[in-house]
């Protein structure tokens, strides 16, 4: 089920820098169409339209607050290998609440994860940092195995 859009046709927006590709990072768009789930936006300076989920959009900064290509982005501290995390997003296909271990943080806003306990050598690469929630390891409780 889709949620109502918070943007209207004509609004100036940017794609959230945490999820934007290099080609779309820092570009100001204008909303041109509202679809049932997504929004179609076109660059203000001209260019190809982009269909994007409205949860990834942010209001564009005022024109007088930035000059040229200057803009700020908050950098997160890197996650150390072995950090326990959970993943939450509508697009994440694994069961919610599962614990994962960070294998590596690439420093580009993406990490590699493996489920706690392993998965026959399989792992997920390129998981976005904004989907992760760090878990305090002192809150993890280990129950003894139950005999059958």
Query: How does the major sheet shape up?
Result: 5 strands, antiparallel
CATH class of the largest domain, named: Mainly Beta
Straight-line distance between termini: 42 Å
How would the global form be characterised? elongated
Give the spatial strand order of the biggest sheet. 4-3-2-1-5
**Any guess at the CATH architecture of the largest domain?**
Roll
Estimate the mean pLDDT confidence.
83
Q: Give the helices and strands as they follow along the chain.
A: EEEEEEEEEE
Query: How many structural domains?
Result: 2
* Rg estimate, integer Å: 19 Å
Number of beta strands: 10
Helix/strand-derived category reads: mainly beta
Low-confidence blocks of residues: none
| Approximate helicity band | under 10%
CATH topology descriptor of the largest domain? SH3 type barrels
What can you tell me about this protein's structure?
With 148 residues, the protein is mainly beta. It contains no helices and ten strands. It has a five-stranded antiparallel beta sheet with strand order 4-3-2-1-5, with no helix packed on it. A five-stranded antiparallel beta sheet has the order 9-8-7-6-10, with no helix packed on it. It starts with 11 loop residues before the first strand and ends in a 14-residue tail after the last strand. The model has no long low-confidence stretch (mean pLDDT 83).
Key phrases:
148 residues; mainly beta; 2 domains; 5-stranded antiparallel beta sheet; elongated; single chain; SH3 type barrels
Task: Offer a quick outline of the entry.
This protein has 148 residues and is mainly beta. It is built from no helices and ten strands.
């Amino acid at each position: 089920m889709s949620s109502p859009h918070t943007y209207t046709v004509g609004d100036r927006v940017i794609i959230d820098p945490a999820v934007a590709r290099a080609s779309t990072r820092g570009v100001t768009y204008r909303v041109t169409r509202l679809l049932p789930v997504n929004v179609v936006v076109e660059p203000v300076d001209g260019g190809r339209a982009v269909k994007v989920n409205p949860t990834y959009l942010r209001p564009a900064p005022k024109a007088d607050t930035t000059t040229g290509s200057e803009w700020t982005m908050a950098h997160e501290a890197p996650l150390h290998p072995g950090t326990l995390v959970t993943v939450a997003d509508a697009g994440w296909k694994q069961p919610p609440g599962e614990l994962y271990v960070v294998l590596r943080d690439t420093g580009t806003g993406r990490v590699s994860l493996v489920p706690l306990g392993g998965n026959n050598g399989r792992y997920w690469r390129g998981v976005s940092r904004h989907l992760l929630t760090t878990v305090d390891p002192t809150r993890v409780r280990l129950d003894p195995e139950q005999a059958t």
